[in-house]
Amino acid sequence: MTGTPWTEVLKDRPIPAAAGGGIWTPVLDYVSGGTVLKIEAEGDWSYADEEAARVGPGGDPRSPIPRDRLLNQRAPIGALVGKIGGSTASNGGVHEFVVGGYCVLEVPKDKGGALMLAMNNLTPPVDRHSGEIHVTMARYAPPTAPHPALHVAEPGPATND
CATH code at 84? Predict the structure, then answer.
């Protein structure tokens, strides 16, 4: 079989460190439950004014900021995080996940909704952010199995039974 099972959905989409009009940046209007997405991210952004706060999509695992004060407690500050559902202004959604620099996400079957991305940040957020991460996303479409070969029956002699 040739080709890839991944279909590109978006390429090099900028996700700003400080989302305009809320915490989250809307990326896809709707993702159905059961969809499998590959998300790849690169670039850097800052979660504070200091040069040490400039990080890539994996965030800053050395930061002393307690994770229980962050938008997503499973990721370090500055990491790229996502959610399905909710609004651009709400902390939670119906499904939250960590992207980092690379993620393959299977949306739970009963959790469809808008896909949004953000910098993992303090809650409430602070306004000392700059930079952007660029995201490429692809949807998985499993290869279909080849159809079994059809065997055409040869016509036989006619019978009158």
Answer: 2.60.120.430
Answer yes or no: is 62 within a domain: yes
Q: What is the mean pLDDT of residues 140-153?
A: 64
**Residue 145 domain-assigned (yes or no):** no
Tell me the pTM: 0.84
Sheet containing 113-119: order of strands: 25-31, 113-119, 80-84, 95-98
The pLDDT of 97-112, averaged and rounded, is 96
**DSSP secondary structure letters along the chain:** --S-SEEEEEEEEEEESS-TTSS-EEEEEEE-TT-EEEEEEEEEEESSSSGGGEE-TB--TT--S-GGGBSSTTS-TTBEEEEESS-TT-S--SEEEE-TTEEEEE--TT--EEEEEEE--BSS--S--EEEEEEEEEEE-PPPPPPPPP-PPPP------
